[in-house]
């Protein structure tokens, strides 16, 4: 085996890649050795944890020519930081040093090589689109012994996270199959919507932009489980358009306009997934043709309001919090803190940071503004809910709230943000509350904002602090931003190096769109 490994899938000499916030992501042509080596690393991680590890082949919202790979830890969470470091080391080791690098990891982590390994592998639709002669998962298979792995084939990123968690909790979280996933989520959806009265066909109808990716295929697979309680029109299903091109959650959020390829009438409730279906944003156009976006912040607000009301009705004293990043719209933070009076935390960009912060509460709702997020319930919160749902000596209102909360727990994919699960939860909440998308939108008004990308020679020169809201280097940059921000009303701006693209991201918000645009532009000039 050692000799085989040495010569398989050689690394282009000198190529350096980093395991970033979302694993490895770059042009698909540069990933041959990465796929192979991540197969090897996944097998080692599995031996170390004595559990099943996930490997997902995806580049999410990146353009079609990119691909990527990330590892999923035993409870369905992102790979732990030390192993992200091993992944980067292994990726950048020159070919002749590969065996030594692997042995180093085995030694450092005291891995018992006789321990069996188990790896679940999934992929989105990219490799099909690129028509690779040899699928990227083929390279992974070279790294993992075939008997040790289960190949799920085409799945969304959150479906793979879910399967890994189900496997390692021995079915307690659900069955580690797609059928198990659909039936758990859809049964919970049907339970929840039983509490909604007289829904019209319009209320049951939703337009979904699948970003020409995996999400569209999976929504189609799920549809029959919904028993017509949700009627979905799918657009951008991959049959014509290019993956993520002029469509999908990232396009809609950043461009603040509808995707191409969608046929929407004024007032229609619409949502967009990203390329691997772990993000979702909602939107509609009003009677004047004006576009309204309901992003991750609006989603977090809707969900946390719903949960807080139910907790009160159930008489459960559980600590609920919302976790956001610096990209959260200032209005959302203000509304959550001052009107809803929930705890709000701000973390660095990247779901693993939000996930960890959310774990500190009984109920932790976390969303990035781009629509990536979910809700976490602590073990003790789930136990209290269970007891209440089974109690016989409580009034009907408390009982009803407890049952609704239980179904809410079941509809949510707690392992990671999940467009399909979030969509079902949002649809159920709107149905139960009898709320239109316009009423949801009116909960608070977003401050106009603008996001820009700036290409620089070395983005790592920008270092930040305070959950990325302030730049500490290069010297003078933060002072320049502060001076620019002072020129505008209700303004805020920050810069940070992207973890997934070779760019610096600039964010600005202010009381008018013109001011937000101007501020973002001025700050980008200060970054050069
Ligand atoms: P970077 O490229 O580090 O900004 C982007 C998103 C993150 C996260 C990751 C992973 C923004 C501004 N950034 O990260 O929130 O979702 O991709 O996909 O949306
Ligand atoms: Zn994604």
TrEMBL record:
Annotated positions binding substrate: 368-370, 496-500, 505
Biological processes annotated in GO: carbohydrate metabolic process; hemopoiesis; UDP-N-acetylglucosamine biosynthetic process
Cofactor: Mg(2+)
Cofactor note: Binds 1 Mg(2+) ion per subunit.
Biological role stated in the UniProt entry: Catalyzes the conversion of GlcNAc-6-P into GlcNAc-1-P during the synthesis of uridine diphosphate/UDP-GlcNAc, a sugar nucleotide critical to multiple glycosylation pathways including protein N- and O-glycosylation.
Protein known as: Phosphoacetylglucosamine mutase
Catalytic reaction list: N-acetyl-alpha-D-glucosamine 1-phosphate = N-acetyl-D-glucosamine 6-phosphate
Domain Alpha-D-phosphohexomutase C-terminal: 453-524
UniProt keyword terms in alphabetical order: Isomerase, Magnesium, Metal-binding, Phosphoprotein
Alphabetized GO MF terms: magnesium ion binding; phosphoacetylglucosamine mutase activity
């Amino acid at each position: 085996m050692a000799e085989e490994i040495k010569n398989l899938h050689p690394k282009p000499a000198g190529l350096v890649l980093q395991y970033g916030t979302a694993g490895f992501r770059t042009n698909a042509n540069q990933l041959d050795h990465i796929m192979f080596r991540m197969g090897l690393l996944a097998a080692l991680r599995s031996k170390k944890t004595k559990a099943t590890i996930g490997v997902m082949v995806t580049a999410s919202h990146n353009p079609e020519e990119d691909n990527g790979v990330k590892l999923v830890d035993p409870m369905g969470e992102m790979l732990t930081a030390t192993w992200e470091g091993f992944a980067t080391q292994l990726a950048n080791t020159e070919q002749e040093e590969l065996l030594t690098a692997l042995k180093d990891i085995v030694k450092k982590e005291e891995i018992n090589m006789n321990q069996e390994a188990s790896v679940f592998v999934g992929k989105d639709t990219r490799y099909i689109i690129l028509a690779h002669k040899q699928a990227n998962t083929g390279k992974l298979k070279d790294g993992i012994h075939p008997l040790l792995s289960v190949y799920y084939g085409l799945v969304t990123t959150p479906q793979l996270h879910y399967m890994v968690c189900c496997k390692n909790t021995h079915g307690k979280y659900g069955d580690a199959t797609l059928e198990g996933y659909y039936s758990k989520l859809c049964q919970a959806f049907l339970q929840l919507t039983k509490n909604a009265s007289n829904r019209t066909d319009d209320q049951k109808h939703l337009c979904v932009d699948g970003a020409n990716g995996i999400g569209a295929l999976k929504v189609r697979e799920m549809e029959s489980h919904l028993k017509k309680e949700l009627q979905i029109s799918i657009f951008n299903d991959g049959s014509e358009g290019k993956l993520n091109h002029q469509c999908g959650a990232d396009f809609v959020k950043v461009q603040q306009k509808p995707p191409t390829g969608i046929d929407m009438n004024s007032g229609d409730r619409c949502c967009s997934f990203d390329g691997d279906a772990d993000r979702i944003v909602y939107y509609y156009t009003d009677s004047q043709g004006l576009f309204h976006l309901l992003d991750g912040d609006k989603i977090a607000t809707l969900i946390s309001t719903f949960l807080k009301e139910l907790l009160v009705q159930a008489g459960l004293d559980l600590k609920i919090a919302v976790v956001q990043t610096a990209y959260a719209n200032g209005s959302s933070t203000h509304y959550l803190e001052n009107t809803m009076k929930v705890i709000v935390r701000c973390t660095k960009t990247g779901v693993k940071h939000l996930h960890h912060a959310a774990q500190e509460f009984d109920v932790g709702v976390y969303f990035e503004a781009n629509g990536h997020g979910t809700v976490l319930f602590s073990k003790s919160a789930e136990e209290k809910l269970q007891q209440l749902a089974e109690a016989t000596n409580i009034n009907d209102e408390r009982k009803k709230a407890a049952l609704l909360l239980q179904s809410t727990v079941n509809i949510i994919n707690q392992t990671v943000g999940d467009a399909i699960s979030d969509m079902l939860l949002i649809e159920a909440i709107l149905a139960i509350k009898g709320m239109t998308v316009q009423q949801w939108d009116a909960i608070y008004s977003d401050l106009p904002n603008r996001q820009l990308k700036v290409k620089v020679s070395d983005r790592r020169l920008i270092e930040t602090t305070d959950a990325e809201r302030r730049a500490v280097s290069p010297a003078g940059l933060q002072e320049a931003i502060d001076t620019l921000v002072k020129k505008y009303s209700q303004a805020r701006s920050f810069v940070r190096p992207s973890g997934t693209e070779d760019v610096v991201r600039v964010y600005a918000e202010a009381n008018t769109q013109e001011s937000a645009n101007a501020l973002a532009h001025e700050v980008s000039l200060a970054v050069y």
